[in-house]
Structures are given as structure tokens and as C-alpha cells.
Automatic annotation (TrEMBL):
Pfam families: ABC_tran, TOBE
Key word rRNA processing present: no
InterPro entries per record: AAA+_ATPase, ABC_SmlMolc_Importer, ABC_transporter-like_ATP-bd, ABC_transporter-like_CS, Mo/tungstate-bd_C_term_dom, Mop_domain, P-loop_NTPase, Transp-assoc_OB_typ1
Natural source organism: Saccharopolyspora spinosa
Protein name per Swiss-Prot or TrEMBL: Molybdate transport system ATP-binding protein
Residue stretches making up the Mop domain: 289-354
Domain ABC transporter, first and last residues per copy: 1-237
Length: 362
């Protein structure tokens, strides 16, 4: 197939990474895992910064790496664009000059490189900052310029290394929304390393979970998070993520609806997800009336003690959901598996996100 194909085995004395995967053109693969799982090592191999003990990396049928055949294309010839946690802009150059650097390094004439830079600064909505140097940019502004710089070089493969990790709580949602808009227009494959399940839900078509250097889960984002096989995946999938399509003030979900706060503008009918924490959910035997709350009919699947609370897991229209309630509430409601109950959550506690590849429940 065209796109990215990789089969890698990288060894250190105390660690071995083994991973095999494909990323189709225009597709985003999220790599999720705890610290030390091998996520950054994987990106470094793809970028050509590390050579594995054994492996193959191909893009659109061209070999970048083949240890059996002695092929190892250097980093500067791979056509890789990288957006890391920190913007890493050249401090002595303006935003415009930073973005124009990639095209200029590739031999593009100065005037044309400037036009390319102007275009991408506009695409990431920072045209007004073109003359500023990095020292006069906020963290979110600098990361937007860094994204423009990565895209201006017309990369054959885009690598995103925890691009939202260094941003504050106000800048991260805006940057996530921008990435969603940009990535869904890309025709090249993208690999996103993240520790945040929300990044995977909003941005990624496919999900690969790494633990101790091994791929433990892999597949469409929605499917992996809806039916996690590993405790780590279940833990990071702790948010309730309800798939649907954008409606007037939330999403349509089967024959029902969930209302909430729009994180970014959505067109009706666009793929979207309602996201809310298990702690925001109340459990009722009967549907409550007379209150502007979301009420979702659920069949209980399991009750899991978690310290001071009990995580009540259920299924609604093939979507897994969770609620954290007190042991007293479980006793008062006499909850047992297979009971039919209502999960109730206030609209103010629900965030409505666009989705790229899909979403799931907790």
C-alpha cells in the first residue's frame, strides 16, 4: 500500500522496542503509552535519528530504512516534518523567517519561500505575528508558528511529539482544534505521540498502544478505546467518550441526543463526540424529570471498587460508559449487573469535540 509501513526492532541493554504498523495517506496514527514505553524511540527511528537493530521503514513504496539491504536514508533526505512539545523556533528569526526556513533550505527561492510562509501563517491563524521573534510570542502562538514551519516544508511524513503537552489549559484546546482542522486536510500520513487520550480521540484515525516496548493494542481509535484489553488502556480511556454526529447544541447519539459545550464550531452532521468524566455522572433508577440534564439509558455491566468510590460500568447503544458513585449510593440503589438504569450528566459538564477517526466510551 502507499503511505507509511514500518517494522522495527530497536535494542538497548535494558530495553527492546518491537513495533509493526501501517499508516495510510491522509491518516493519523496515535501512539499512546506511559513514560518509558518507547514512544519517542519509535519517532526517532522513523525520523532517521536512531538506527534499529533490525527493521524496515517505507513511505509510498520507497525504502527509508532496510537493515537487511543496508539502506538508511539520512534524516535530511526523508522529508519528515516534526512538531515537538516545545516550539524550538530560531530565536533570532521572525515568525515569518522561521516558517520560510524549511522551503529555503530545500532550495526554494526567497520570494517563493516567503509566499509559502505567509500562506501557512494564515492557515494556523497567526498572520498578524509574522514580524515577531519567538521571545514575543506566547506558548500557544509559538506552537502555531512551529506547526506552520513543519507544514511549510511540505513533509512526506508528519511527526507530532506530544505537541500539546507544554501548553497551558487555555491554549491546549485551541491548538487541538487547529490540529484537527489542519490534519483532516492533509494527504500525507501522520504519526502522533501522546499521553492524552483526548488527543487520540480528536485527532487520530488509528491507535497503537505501547507498553514496555511492545504493541499491546492496535486498531481504529474507537474500537481500541471502547474495548480495551490492557489495564493501562482502560485507565487512560477513563473519560466517557460518546460517538455521534453534531446537532444543534450537542450530538445525536442513536435515537437520542446529548447536549453540551461546543469546543469548536461544528457543522450539523459532522462526526463528533460528547466527552465527560465519570465523576460528573449520577445514576438513577428512574429517568429524572424537570431538569435540563442529559439522561442516557444504560444496562449495567460491572461494578468496580476504586478507593472511596465505585466505578459503575454500563453499555448504552453499544457504547461503554462509566459513572463514579459512592458505595452508599450503590447500596441505596441496589445496583447489580444487568440492571437497567439512567446515567445523568449536566450539559455544563459535557464537552462536544469534533472527531477524526472515532471515539468511544470509558
Amino acid at each position: 500500500m502507499s503511505g507509511l509501513r514500518a517494522d522495527i526492532e530497536f535494542r538497548r541493554p535494558d530495553f527492546t522496542l518491537r513495533a509493526e504498523f501501517e499508516v495510510a495517506p491522509g491518516e493519523v496514527l496515535a501512539v499512546l503509552g506511559p513514560n518509558g514505553a518507547g514512544k519517542s524511540t519509535l519517532l526517532s527511528v522513523l525520523a532517521g535519528q536512531l538506527v534499529p537493530h533490525r527493521g524496515r521503514v517505507e513511505l509510498d513504496g520507497a525504502s527509508w530504512l532496510d537493515t537487511d539491504r543496508g539502506i538508511n536514508v539520512p534524516t535530511h533526505r526523508r522529508g519528515v516534518g516534526l512538531l515537538a512539545q516545545n516550539a524550538l523556533l530560531f530565536p533570532n528569526l521572525t515568525a515569518l523567517e522561521n516558517v520560510a526556513f524549511g522551503p529555503r533550505a530545500a532550495g526554494v527561492r526567497k520570494a517563493e519561500a516567503r509566499e509559502i510562509a505567509v500562506h501557512w501563517l494564515s492557515e494556523v491563524d497567526v498572520s498578524g505575528l509574522a514580524a515577531r521573534k519567538p521571545g514575543r510570542l506566547s506558548g500557544g502562538q509559538a506552537q502555531r508558528v512551529a506547526l506552520a514551519r513543519a507544514l511549510a516544508a511540505n513533509p512526506q511524513l508528519l511527526l507530532l511529539d506530544e505537541p500539546l503537552a507544554a501548553l497551558d489549559v487555555d491554549a491546549a484546546p485551541a491548538m487541538r482544534g487547529l490540529l484537527h482542522q489542519v490534519l483532516r486536510r492533509q494527504e500525507k500520513p501522520t504519526v502522533l505521540v501522546t499521553h492524552d487520550v483526548l488527543d487520540a480521540v480528536v485527532l487520530a484515525d488509528q491507535l497503537l498502544v505501547l507498553l514496555d516496548g511492545c504493541v499491546v493494542e492496535q486498531g481504529p481509535t474507537r474500537e481500541v478505546l471502547a474495548r480495551p484489553k490492557e489495564a493501562f488502556t482502560a485507565r487512560v480511556a477513563g473519560l466517557n467518550l460518546v460517538p455521534g454526529v453534531a446537532a444543534a447544541d450537542g450530538i445525536s447519539f442513536g435515537d437520542g441526543a446529548i447536549s453540551g459545550r461546543l469546543v469548536e464550531a461544528l457543522e450539523q452532521g459532522e462526526s463528533a463526540a460528547a466527552v465527560f468524566a465519570p465523576s460528573a455522572v449520577a445514576v438513577h433508577r428512574e429517568r429524572p424529570n424537570g431538569s435540563p440534564r442529559n439522561a442516557i439509558p444504560v444496562r449495567l455491566a460491572a461494578l468496580e471498587p476504586r478507593g472511596d468510590v465505585v466505578r459503575v460500568r454500563g453499555v448504552a447503544r453499544n457504547c461503554s460508559l462509566a459513572a463514579d458513585v459512592t458505595p452508599a449510593a450503590v447500596a441505596d440503589l441496589r445496583l447489580t449487573p444487568d440492571d437497567e438504569v439512567w446515567f445523568v450528566v449536566k450539559a455544563a459538564e459535557v464537552a462536544i469535540h469534533p472527531t477524526s477517526g472515532g471515539s468511544s466510551g470509558a
